[in-house]
Amino acid sequence: MTNSTVPGGNPLLNVGFRIPFDQIRPEHAEGAVDTLLAVTSEKLEALAGAQERGFENFMLDLDTLTEQLDTVNTIVRHLNSVMSSDEWKAAVEAIIPKTSEFYTQLSLHPGLWQALKTFADSEHVQTLDPVQARHLKLTIDEFRRQGADLPEDKKTRLLEVNTRLAQVTNTFSKNVLDATTAYELYVPSERLAGVPQRVLDATRRDAESKGKDGHRLTLHQPVITPVLTYADDRELRRELWEAQLMVGQQEGRDNRPLVREILQLRREQAELLGFRNFADYVLEDRMAGSGENALKFERDLDARTRPAYERENAELEAYYRAHAGADAPDLQPWDGAYWAEKQRQEKFDFDEEALRPYFPMPRVLSGLFEICNRVFGITVTETQAPGWHPEVQYYDIHDEAGVHIASFYTDWFPRDSKRAGAWMNAFVTGGPRENGVEPHLGLMCGNMTAPSGDTPSLLSVREVETVFHEFGHLLHHAMSRVPVRSLSGTQVPWDFVELPSQIMENWVMEREALDLFAAHYQTGEKLPQDLYDRLRAAQNYRAANTAMRQYSFGLTDLSLHVEYDPNSEADPITVAREIMGTFTAHPLPENYAQVAQFGHLFSSPVGYGAGYYSYKWAEVLDADAFSRFAREGIFNRETGRTYVDTILSRGNSDDPAQLYRDFMGRDPDADALLRRSGLLES
After folding, report:
1. Which of 284, 427, 520, 603 is deepest in the core (most CB within 10 A)?
2. Cα 341-345-346 angle, rounded to 5 deg
């Protein structure tokens, strides 16, 4: 993105490629957005009234119309998610109504819509190449989907709905972050018996940093997950589980009423645009096609997995009774992970904690980059750029010809001011230009196990998979060679976007790949073969429970957006709890309200709403697609080159189903995922 020509000392108005994160403050946000809204509005009117309309001076201008505004909006929201404060929250809340109104009015602009239809009817369309023709078609489809053909009264109402939806989903997200950040529990060492030493050290140092004795426990995943998995103190596990349960339903941060309002607004939005429900609206241009198709996909997986799921739960119950005694209390949700880990250790003589010393974060990253060099021909080099926090690192990516194709930031460790989870995002979309190639710019963020004292960040195998996953998304952005910005990189249907990320996780379990990075952080010893063998043997341990957890999220999402009537008397929290209850081995309490903290679904106007099934949909694709690498060689450069040429570089320049066929030579094998997970019923 070229620097703005808008004058002034606001760093958000002079972003360029290297974003001046060391200069950007919350007070810059609203002024920059106001300026860019005015500039973009002028460009919009000029574009709508242009007399000469060719692809370059109309469609490409339309494609880049909001580029600077999008980038600034992304930066502001990003900083609120990684360095949140009252000032950043206020900055985001100030710009949401303005940007939401502008983006809605853009899609409803009668002059621009008429200009677009006029261009589509002109002789210019005869000269368009396939990518340009797809851009035109998808742009017209999207204008219609956003309400361009609606009568004025419905356009007015749609604007109100979209603006309110942006505000209420932001409040939902803020409540989750605030509640997560607010929680802390100080406990003495004796209450943490069974918990790995690295967690004891980290939580003790955290307490010391707050001037307290004992150990500081929080709801961040690197703390709560090992406590629920290893702590012998059942009451402590219960206390933490119930504290996590209350996120999203505390006074002043209660998201439960917001869930119904979001569902109502989405249903109204869909109906205004001519769809039966929100799922049909968002899935119309995705691979699933409709809410009913996505529901059928999830329910089919549920039915085929449930026999194995019930077997696993019966085995765990028997194991628990054999060790805890016939008179022991019934298993509760805060017991499942603890007893499952004991069963796994006994069954496979395998404790995942034994792997951590072999997965120091710096080596994991260097191994990941080496794998990508061998398979995809890229070189990743750490360099310097201003960051938003001292832990932020910055890297350049060059292709085989030495061309700088992308740069990216990483921010891997938890902070009280940072939202949970792991994610990739795009700041700048580059790609082929008349004068060569402009680089892309992106980021990867996470909440991994942090360094502690002299001990580096030592990752679990799941955290290693997460790093590989997010880098898969980043590669999709970084290696895009699509000249049209809105068709570039990860701008693909959401049930296809997880393929490039999830396929990367497969390399984590391959011995040849592990040998590039799995080495003891103190001795340099490679991962011992017997430990690797036990890892592979335990790989599908309780695979059905892992799968059913994902189905529960996907089916709850789809049921709320397809079958539930948000204007009925039925409580969406109760509906969600009843659905999720069919996917848990232990009864859920009456106050269970996981959807009130389900940011994937409710922390943005669309997000993964009606789209959580995409993870499983793409898992089918990735399990099948990796079979080609497994067959031809996991470091086979020709296979990697084909994968880049057919999928990674293509963005949304063709139908995703066709891109998949271009790589595999056929449609997906629907049984691939169940086969990989050991769940395929004979």
Report:
1. 603
2. 120
What is the sign of the dihedral through the CA atoms of 637, 639, 641 and 647? Answer: negative
CB 492 within 8 A of CB 452: no
Q: What is the 3-state secondary structure (H, E, C) of 556-610?
A: HHHHHHHHCCCCCCCCHHHHHHHHHHCCCCCCCCCCCCHHHHCHHHHCCCCCCCC
Q: Is 236 exposed, middle or buried (0-12, 13-18, 19+ CB in 10 A)?
A: buried
Report how far apart, in Å, the C-alpha atoms of 43 and of each of 37, 96, 103, 610 are.
Answer: 10, 21, 14, 34
- Paired residues of 396 in beta bridges: 381, 407
- Angle at the Cα of 406 (from 400 to 411), degrees rounded to 5? 125
| CA nearest to 383, candidates 398, 369, 400, 395 | 395
- Strand, helix or coil for residue 402: coil
Concerning whether 30 is annotated as a catalytic residue, the answer is: no
Q: Whose CA is closest to 591, among 312, 248, 215?
A: 248
Cα maximum dimension of the chain: 83
Q: Are strands 379-383 and 393-398 parallel, antiparallel or unpaired?
A: antiparallel
Helix spans in 188-290 (H): 197-209, 221-230, 234-245, 256-272, 278-283
Spot the catalytic one: 341, 470, 505, 619: 470
pLDDT in tens, 115-171: 999 999 999 899 999 999 999 999 999 999 999 999 999 999 999 999 999 999 999
- Structure pTM? 0.90
The phi, psi pair for 102, rounded to 5°, reads: -65, -50
Q: Alpha carbon of 218 to those of 12, 120, 224, 240: distances in Å?
A: 34, 56, 7, 8
To which residue do tokens 């204008």 refer? Answer: 143
Interatomic CA distance for residues 458 and 470, integer angstroms: 18
Q: Quick check: 493 and 398 in contact, CB under 8 A? A: no
Distance CA 431, CA 440 (A): 7
Q: Is 209 buried (19+), middle (13-18) or exposed (0-12) by CB count in 10 A? A: exposed
